Structure formats: C-alpha cells, structure tokens
Amino acid sequence: MLFNSISFAIFLPIVFILYWFILNKSLKIQNILVLIASYFFYGLWDWRFLFLIFASTLIDFIVGIQLDKNAENYKIKKIWLWVSVIFNIGLLGFFKYYNFFADSFVEMFQLFGYSIKSTWTLNIILPVGISFYTFQTMSYSLDIYYKRIKPTTDFLSFATFVAFFPQLVAGPIERASDLLGQITNKRLFNQAQIIQGLKLILWGLFKKMVIADALAPIVDDIFANYGTYPASTLILGVTLFSFQVYGDFSGYSDIAIGTSKLFGIELMSNFKFPNFSRNVAEYWQRWHISLSTWFRHYIYIPLGGSREGKLKAIRNISIIFLVSGFWHGANWTFVFWGAFHALAFIPVFLLGRNAIYKDNVVAQNSWFPSLVELGQLILTFIIVTFSRIFFRSESLTDAFGYISRIGSNFTYVPYHHPLGYRMTDYFVLLILFVIYEFRMRRDERSPFNFKNRYIRFAAYTLVIFTILLFYDSGFDRSFIYFQF
C-alpha cells in the first residue's frame, strides 16, 4: 500500500478511529490492532513476504533473550549475536545480492578469457523494505549485546516494533531504545501532536506528488536518452533528479513521521534540509539521518572510529561509505557512488571541518546566507548532484557515458518537456519550493508554521489544491527508496 494512494486515504482513518475511539481501553489491544494493520499494509504488496518479517522478528526476539541470559558468558553470547547477524545479512544477501554476485562471478572469468554460462541466477523478487527492517531488528540484538538496552519479553510489542507500518517500508530505521519503549508504554491522545502529524503528512504528500512525481518524467526521459541530448540538458536532468529524489524520500519520511504522530508515537528526524549543507560532512548529517546514524553506531565506532589515528579513520570512513553505497542496491553504480562520497568526505575530515556545522544551520541569525555560505551551499550541491549520476544510471557504462557526454558536447539547447508542458512552470515551482524550505530550515517538523490563521488556511488550501492538480492515477507513484 502506498502512502500516496486512495487505499491508504481509506485505511489510515479507519485504523485511527479504531485505535483512539474504540480500542483505546487496552494498550495490548491497541498494539494488536497496529500489528494487524501493519501486516495488512505490507501484505498488500505480496503476502508471502510477511513470513520473512515474522521470521526476522522471531529470530531476533529469541536472540535478545538469549543474549541477556548469557550476558556473562562471552563465547555463548557471541554465538547468539552471530545467529542474528548471519540470519539478517543472509536474508538480505540472498534476496538483494545473490544475482549480483552470480553475474559478477561470471563477468570476472570473462575478463580472463573464460566463457561461463550464467546459469546460477534466479528469478528473485526483492521484498519491499527488506533493507530497512533487517537493519532495525539486527540493531536490537546489537544493542543488547553491547548492554545498551535490556531485551523485552513481550513478543507482541517487539513484533509491533519491527513491523510498525508508518516506517516499515522505507524508514526511518529506528532503534529499540527509541521506538520499542514507546510501543510498550500507554499512549495518550494529544490533539497538538495529531495536528502536527497531519501537517507533516500534507507537506510530505506535496513533496512527493508535486515535486518528485512532476519531475520524474523529465528525469526518466533525459537519463534514458542521454546520448541524444546536449550537455545543458544532461546537467538539467541530474539537477532535477536531485530535487526528485529529495522530494520523494524526504516526502516519505515526513508522511511516516506524521502518521506515527497520529498514534502517539514519535519517530526520529530523517532529513534536516540537506540541500542547505555547507560541506559534504554536513550533508550526511542532514540526509537519511537514520541510516548514517546506524552505520556510525554499528560499523564506524566498533571499527575504532577516529580514535586510532588518521589512517585508520580514513579506512573506517571509506568502509562505511562503500557499505552505504552497496546497501542502496546490487549494482556497481552504487559502489562508485559510495566511493565518490568517501573521496569528497575525507578532505573535509582531514581539515577538521566534519563537525563544525553540527549544531547550527546556514544563516543561523540572518534572513539570508553570507556570500561565503552561499558559495559553500552551491559547491556542496554541485558535488552531491554530480554523484547522483552514478546513483541514477542503470550501469557504470551509462554513468560514464553521461559524464563523457557532458564534457564533450557542452552546448545549450532548450529542453522540451516529454509531455509538452511548459518548463518555465517547473522552474518557478522549484524556486518557490527552495525559498519556502529555506524559511523552514530551523525546524524540519513545522511546515505551515504561520502565526496568522488566515495565512495558514490559505497555505493548506493552496497545497491541497496543488496536490489534486498534479495527481495522476495513471502514473507509477511508487517511492524511489522502495527498491532499496
């Protein structure tokens, strides 16, 4: 079920009414409702994959109890941890990477002149959201192993934590210390929290349906036919893709966070206006925060972080970016994308500027950025946008072909929308979107924060009208990160 579908618009109010007004006497019954709703929400894609979620839930529930039971027996405890890691990584590896490794093995032999038939590949369907819920359950076991939390003996609450439908498919990737505690405790009806949630849902739908979906046909056309377009069009294509993927993924996160608020649950922020970053390090503190945090806690710090000298820190940085790239998909394009960001991040780290913007936003005490800040914003956006050529391309051949075409055919020719729409309208829309987000930059959870209620009402009306205007039932409206 998609957030931006009619079925979800029917599903959500029904669950909300049952949750708060009919089944509100018992926390256990509320959690049963949420679990059933979550399995129904996910099962509409393919009910068979519900067994995978249940298996991952059951394994890590048992592992958590055994880790605590053998807390003082290091060898046994480590065996149980490996049960969780091997199961979850094995699950992810089989469904997401089996064919990639099989094809890469064949291609490696072909480089040395040996011809091997690719008979090992399988017709495997990638379960939606598998990269997210496997990381979430695995983090639970890791946190118990490192004695950060105690395991739960309430299987219902744990299953609800794993399958919680607002963030099941594309995050944020929540830790048990943040989400599970909210599920095991009684929630109270909070009107202010619900209103804030509705605002986030509306803003997320705008970013997805008006920004991302409107740009998708243009981006698809340019990347599919890059060999026929001049450099000006290719630069336009990857620039619009930057806005598309941001609107798509941050829009999903806004809807997920907003939907959770409707049920009295707070999820972590996953995006904090990454397009207003002043270097690549700040960008990664603001983009897909839950994944960056996961890699920092469970890979970077256990490897030694930056405590053991510059060389090992550079090694650790390189590892997490390569793993991050590979996490996004079974394609060498994502590995190159991760490597590119590692190369862009390391100089910032060596100069000691990787954390200087952690606690403030651009133009912190001003309406406008300074000239220096403006230059930093533009440079960072160019670096990140260039990397997305690898992220969006179907293969490395296409990615390097796209880049080569930019360098060898640097001419300007006006681009015409594949459906015949005026491009000027899109440019104006994006400019207004950027201006509005810059105004919001100090608080990503407060869209429509106008003091005057008439202005707020006008903003709601305009956004709803625009969403309805851009809605196209014949368009594939899936979220980009569903494929990861």
Protein model, in words:
The protein is an all-alpha fold. It has two domains: 184 residues, no CATH class; 214 residues, no CATH class. The chain is 67% helix and 0% strand. It is globular. The two termini are 16 Å apart.
**What do the pLDDT scores average to?**
90
> How many individual helices?
18
**Unreliable sequence segments:** none
What general outline do the C-alpha atoms trace? globular
Query: What summary fits the major beta sheet?
Result: none
**Tally of DSSP β-strands:** 0
> How large is the share of residues in beta strands?
under 5%
Structural class: mainly alpha
Number of domains: 2
Q: What secondary-structure arrangement, pairings included, does this model have?
A:
Layout (H helix, E strand, L loop, with lengths): L5 H17 L4 H17 L6 H20 L4 H38 L18 H16 L9 H9 L1 H4 L7 H9 L6 H34 L6 H32 L17 H7 L2 H12 L9 H19 L3 H19 L20 H22 L3 H13 L14 H18 L12 H18 L14
Summarize the structure.
The chain has 484 residues and is mostly helical. It has helices at residues 6-22, 27-43, 50-69, 74-111, 130-145, 155-163, 165-168, 176-184, 191-224, 231-262, 280-286, 289-300, 310-328, 332-350, 371-392, 396-408, 423-440, 453-470.
